[in-house]
Structures are given as structure tokens and as C-alpha cells.
Amino acid sequence: MSLQTPRTPRALGQARRLAALLVLLLAPGLAAAQTGVLAGTVVDGDFGGGLPGASILVVEQGTGAATTIDGEYRIDRLPVGSYTVRYSFVGYATQVVTGVEIAAGQTQTINITLTTDATLAEVIVEAEEIIATNSEAGLLRVRARAAQVSDAISAETIAQSGASDAGDAMERVTGASVQGGQYVFVRGLGDRYANTQLNGAVLPTADPDRRAVQFDLFPAGFLENIVTLKTFTPDKPGSFSGGLVDITTRSFPDAFSSSISVSSGFSTEAIPGDAFLVDPVQGVSPFRFGAGDLAIPDLLANTPREAFTRPTTRLDGPDGPGTGPLVRQDAAASAALNDLSNALTPMVAPSEGTIPVTGSFSASIGDRIPLGGNALGYIVGLTADQGASYYDNGTLSRVDLTGRDATSGLVSVDTTQFRTDRRATQSATIGGIANLAYRLGSTNEIALNTLFSHVTESEARTLDGVDNVLGEGTPVTDIVTGYTERTLTSAQLRGEHVAPRLGNLEVDWRANVARTLLDQPDLRQAAIRASEREDDDGTVTTAYSLVGTPPGPQRYFRDLDEQLASGALDLTLPFRAFGSGAQLKVGGLAERTDRGYNERFFFYELDRGVALGGTDGTALGAYLSPDNVGVVDTRTNSAGEITRYEFGHFLVDATRDQNQYDGQFDVGAAYGMAEVGLGRLRLIAGARFEASRLFVASQALAADDTPEDQRVTLDGTDYLGTDRRYTDVLPSLNVVLGLSDRMNLRAAATRTLARPTFREIAPVTTYDFTSDGALQGNPGLERTLITNLDLRWEWFNAPGQILAVSGYYKRLTNPIERVITDAENGATSYANVDQADVLGAEFEVRQRLALFGLGGVLGERLSLGANLSLTASSITISDRELEARRELNPNASDTRDLQGQSPYLLNANLTYDDALRGTSAGVFFNVSGPRLSRVGNPLPDVYERPSPQLDLTASQQLFGRFTLKGSVKNLLGSTYREAYDVSGLTLNGVTEVSPFLEYARGTSFSLGISVNPSFGIGSAASIPAPGASTGAPLGSDD
């Protein structure tokens, strides 16, 4: 007897339909599992870029493809097996690659270089010689073919080094150093002599005092690579000498790709839950936008400076201005001053808290999808990060060299201030990218690249110690509480086109808009003196008072809005000359940058005494509470009428009109250049014409005696400002001699320039808190002209490996330096000095250890990388500065180092990569020599001392889709130290001078995990890319 239920015809029909449906659903996946993809790039060996229209043929299958405008190709659904692939282009030697293995469900990448050859002989190579490449090797291949001397770092190396942003990544580039995690110095030259681009377009800056891009605005997860050009060619902006840094964001992948990553970490100086200083008003968050509770109140923002009064200000009366009652005698005026004085929060000092948990999150997705018979590629990414740093063991000192004894030569040193430093910062970043590219056939591509980055930082700091200027051993506490918000938004539309009927003329164009915003709301500063007094009965009491100039708690607001728009067009025409490939390139650029800068500065004055109860946040909060600010009491007459309003603290607006300004920078450029091959010799020569205008107008009216070069006219009114115009022709000659197929000797002679910044040329004077003196702009500044000479030998002895030696010399004419204008009062300005010279050498090695005799698999998996830069610089000191220096040191040189230049920079790393097991690890070392951070006034100078850093990173793939990553940074626990340079001086009774600033950086640890999900929007394996084959034979109609 059967226990099975008989199947009815209806049930059988449903089963058949279900089976058919399963077959339809699974068939593409089963088919894909038996096929693979061949993809890659064909590079023009003569000029280094992608070669559009090249033919790729899989011999055994008779299928093939043509390369896109970028030289890329893709052949889908190739059956599993081993193939011979032929790469060809008219006028170029054909390359045949044998042994190309196609695995099921995998993409095999073959990148080929085709070169012109009079014999047009066919070259046969093994696939293994080509497949041993990766992103770093790809960048080295670009460097080998580039017209300029360049260095680069790939996304692969950035990830392996554990860098969190572009600033961290640049620390690994030959000859580059980074100050404050933000500002890049290349070849010993400061940010003035560097230029930064994003995807080939110049960016605005969020720094009011520098024309420098802040590199911490670019999260590492968004980066494809960073290329630093060290020699100038006319198709690049002429405003750099040290280096042109081009940050390239991620491009869409060949196949569907997605990733989600999370991580968390801590530092030995900032362990979550430990004591911490915080801003009592508000913290930071990746999702907080705007100043929030710290924004300047509308009442203050909308009240002009001249409307602020004092209790003793006499109002207007019937007999004219200043003939009425005092403010304190008028109810309405007293009420207005009371409201203004109470508009700001009384919470000015840091409060105690605990260190928060820190971590990061990122996600991205990218693919190619079919659209209109062509392919649309996209990548979208999001990143969010929250961090904290802290130290409570820092020290800070200020010293004064008071004079030199003419007989003994001894120099007297006074320590004017000494503090113990406690500083906490919280930071948060959120960013996103969305890049699209649409390829129309194999000769046209249009792309849109967008990026958004938003960084907030909160600072809370207290400094306790003595201030001998106020009296020997006088106890003083300084407090600083601040909040900074920076935003970068960029959008770029570009097109690349090739016209085969016009001799393969290449047309590249781009339009770019970008905007940076800086908002620093309510920076709160105060200095409190403690004074002990003994009463008649012997009781000792401590009185507290505010000191400084001005003395009351200071409230500082500033914001900057800088917008840039640019458009560029490049035309490249390839041709043959002297039996080799050549090209002519012409183009132009138009660019405008608009800046608006505003600041407001307030402080409190006392009308009648209010006692300060201490130095902590509670005491300062009570001191500025409504009970002590504004109207605190009244007086009445015999009739009970109020006759006088008594004020405690009242708010004073100390804003200066001349410190608010608008700026505009325009540059128009045109260039022409030719690249010609003469056998193994390549010549790249041409010139660039740049016409520029730098315009600044403040809100202050010009006086009758204001010089013409310090006034501008707007709508018939003269304001303090300046209008500078420059016209320059910048020649360039680069020579590349191919000593062999893998070895080059490069030489270059170029002329570049550096222009003044908005702040430097603006006729405004501000108080610089870092130097304790006034800083004045100089409208008479000229731009700096720079002659550059470069020489490099480079040997790309294997894929991904290099040995290189470089030398360079630079002569700067009229360099801009910050100079002393009044040594007694600490006043400084900007000026052109006669000249400066920079001489340097660079050494680079990147090799697998198998080259050094370490055999077997280990030698192939271990790689050694190192680069060393040696730089010497000298700048002519102004006569006034030299005179002041020689009063203390008669033997003082008439030259000094360039500010920010290190005599040496060393990077070294040892990495292990086991692709089979998904294991990688690295040891990274970095150190820079002492660099001049602050020019003395006149002496001593302050140098940032070497702080060697050793980092460890490791990652392990798990279960195919997961990757576990860990890192340890600053394993040596090095401290940050800025020290006074008293070399050459014989000090009177002093053997050691306290450092300008010193604190522990701690050792940081992080652990994270990433996953590459399998879900996606379609499958790239079933979508033919432009120029890609779907498996049909060449010439077939199918």
C-alpha cells in the first residue's frame, strides 16, 4: 500500500511551471558561473594616456572589443579557459598576450601599453608578465610615461597605511610634509608654493589667512589616488613651485561593487570614559549643521557697531548730537544696552566631562548599467566619523631675550610666561560623493563628479601657570572655548571626445563650481589673575580679576564664504614626426574666485565692581549671569521715579570695519605645447600665458590721505582696498630620455609664480593671538617669480617597483615673507624680500624583497618602500630684521631658513601581502627634520622638533566577503614639541630654555570590519560596456 498522495494533473502542471520559472531565474547565474570577464586598459606608450579605438581580439573565440575614450575595454561572458589575446592600433606595434586565464565568475585584468614602431613588429609576451599589477603598479606605469616629474600614492597604499584622510596620505609622498594635519609642504616650500586640484580643477580655501586647501576635508575612502606633479608643463596652472597636488576621487568599477565599513578606536591619551574638557554649550556630531546655540544672536548681528553705547554715553538732545541725557538716565537706552549685554550665553569656560566613544562608518556602491545602448557608470559613497583627542600634560612658555652684555657677550633670557596645558578637541566629519560617467560609443564620455565634506571641531582648553609680565610669579589661568565648522562642496562636469575624422583630435573640456564655508561662532577667551592678600588678622584671601587687552571675557565671531567657478578647454592633436609619435596641445582656462569675510569682536566692560569667585566655569558663569550683566540696580528720586540705571558688565562691540572685506580673484590663461619623440628622446616644450587680477575692498572708508594703491572705488565711494593686476608668460621645457624600456632620465627647466593671498594684500590690521602683536596687510606686494631646475633618474625594474634619484634647484625672486615692522611692539606685516634659494635631493625605492636575495614565496610577498628628501634653503633677511637680530647676536647670518622647510624627510615601510589568503600587514615609519614654525621677534626663532612616528596596520579577509582591519599609530609614543632656537647665543645663567609648546600625542588603536555585500542593482556581467563584446564574433550581426 502506497503512502504517497497521487499527483493530479493540476499539481503536475504547477510543478512544471515552477521548474520552468526556476530554470529562467537560475540560468543567467549558472551561465555566468561558467564564464568570466576580460577587462583592462590600453595605454598610449608615447604619451601615457589611454588609447581610444584600439582593437582587442580573443584569438580562440574570434570575439573582441574596441577601447573607450579612456583606453578601457571589457569582454563579457568568455568561457572558462586559457586564451591568446591580440592588442592592435593603426600605426602602433601589435602586442600578443598568451596564457590569459579566465576563471568562472571572475574578472581578469590585462593592462597593455602600445607604442609606435617603424617596423610594426608583433610583440609576444606572457600574461604573467602583465597580470602582476595593481593600483600602485598602475600609478607607477603612469609616472613612467608622464611628461613631468611626479610622485603618487594610490588608494591601495592609502588603505594599507591606515590613513584617515588626504592629509594622512600625503605624509607618505616623497618630499611632502603636512602641518597640523591640514597643510601640505612639498620640497620644503610652504603652502603658498603648492597648488591643489580635485579631479583636475582648482579648489577654493576655507582658511581666511592662506590660499591653501585643507587636506583633512577629504576622507580616505573617497580617494582613488593623489598625484603630485613636481615640474610644470603649460597645460597646468603656473601658480606652484613645490608641487601641484591633484586629488582624484573614486571612479565607478568595471563590475558591481559595494562596501560597508565600521570601526572604532581610542588613544592612550583619550580613553573613553576618562576625564575630559567639553564645551558646555554644545558638542559635535556628524549630523550637526550650523552653529546652533553658538550662532551670533540676531539682535547682535542686526545691530550696527555705532549703535552700541556705554552707560556714560550722552544721547542726542534737542540742541544737537550729544546734548541729551546719559544712557544710564534714559529708560529706553538703558533697556537696549541691557538686552545687548545679555544676548550671549554666560557659559564661556570649559566644563568637566568624559571622553566619548569614537568611531567611523562608510558605505559605497558602484556599477555600470545600460542606458540608451551605451553604459552609465556610477559610484555613490557616504562616510561619517567622530573622533576625540586630549592631553593634560602639555607645557607652554614664552621667553624674551632682554639684551646682550657688550663686555661678556652674555644674552639675558626672561621666561615671561609659563603654563601647564590641558586641551581637548572633539571632531566630526560627514561626507559624500556621487560620480556619474556616460560613455557614448568608444569616442565620447561625459562625466559628473560631485563631492561634499563637512567637518566640525570643538575645542576646550585651560592653561594654568604664571605670567611674570604682570608681576614676578603672578598666577594666571587662561581659558579658550571654541567651535569651528568647515564645509566643502564641489561639482564638476567634464567631457572627453575623440574625432577620428580629424586625425584623432582629442577634445577635453570641464566646468567646475566649488564652494567652501568657514564658520567660527563665539570663540570665548579669558585670562584670570589670582592675587593673594593677607588681612590684619593674618587671614589670607585670594582675589580674582580679568587681565588682557581688552581685559573682559572676549567673544569672537568670524565667517568666510569662498566660491570658485572655472571652465577649461584642451585640444590635443596627435601626429607623426621624425618617425615617432608626436602631439600638439593647446587650450585655455577662465577662473573666478569670490570671497566674503566678516568678523565681529565683543568684550565686556565693568560699570561697577562685580566680584569674580574663581577660575572655573561655575565662577565665570556666575560672573556673567544676568544678575551681574546689564542693568543690575536703579536709583530713584523722592517721588519714586527712576533717575539712574546701574550697570554691572556691559557689552562693547570692538569690531573694525576694515577687517570686513570682499575679494575677487580672476585668472585667464592660454597655452600651447608640443611633445615630440626623437628616438628614445622625448621633448615637451611650450609656454603658458596668464593674466590675473586680485581685488580686495574692505568696509572701511578711505581717508583723504590714503595712498592710491590702498583705495578702491565702488559706486562712487572710496574704500580701503587694493586692485592688483599681473600678466605673465611662463615657459616650460621637459626632456625625457629613455635609457631603456624601463629606465628614464628626466630634466626640466621651467618658470612658475606665486601670488599674494587675499589676506596678505588687504590693507587691514588684525591682532594675531599667536604672536602677541599686530599683523598688517601690504597692498604693495608683488608676485613671486620662480625659476625651477629638475633632474631625475628612474628605473621601473619590475611592475610596481621603482628606484629613483632626483635633484632640484629653485631661485625665488621677490618671495613673500612675514617680516618685523616694529620689534618693540611685536608688529609684523608681509613684504617681498630680495630672493631665496632652495636646493634638494630625493631618493625613492619600492622593491619586493626577492630582489635583495630573499627567495621563495616570502620574498615575493614582502615589499620594502622608502623615500628620503634632503633640502637646504636660504632666504635673505630684511634690513630691519637683520639689525634687530644682530643686536643680540653680532654674528647673525643675513639669511635664514624658509618657514616650514625641513632639512630632511624620511618615509619607510615594510609590507606583507598574501593575496591567496587575504592577509596583509605593514610597518610604516615617518620623521621630518626640525622646521622653522615661527620667525622670532627678532629672536629666538621657534622650530618644530622631529617627532618620529611608527605605525602598524594589518588586515585579514574572512569568509570571502568580510575584512577585519586593525592599526596602531605612534607606537613610539612620540611627543609634539616646538622649541626655541638659541644656537649661536651665550645665555646668561641659563642652560636650558622651556619649550614654546610641548604635549604628548599618545598611541592610538583602532579596529574595524568591512563587508562587500552580494546584493546589487543588476549585474555588470550581463551589461555590455561601450566597445565591449557580448561574445559574438567580430563583424557578426548577432
Task: Provide tags for this entry.
Ferric Hydroxamate Uptake Protein, Chain A, domain 1, 22-stranded antiparallel barrel, single chain, globular, 55% strand, mainly beta, Immunoglobulin-like, 1038 residues, disordered N terminus, 5-stranded mixed β-sheet
What features would you describe in this structure?
This protein is mainly beta and 1038 residues long. The chain has four domains: 112 residues, Carboxypeptidase-like, regulatory domain (Immunoglobulin-like, Sandwich); 113 residues, Beta Complex (Ferric Hydroxamate Uptake Protein, Chain A, domain 1); 95 residues, no CATH class; 605 residues, TonB-dependent receptor, beta-barrel domain (Maltoporin, Chain A, Beta Barrel). 9% of the residues lie in helices and 55% in strands. It has a 22-stranded antiparallel barrel. A hairpin with a 5-residue loop joins β21 and β22. The two termini are 57 Å apart.
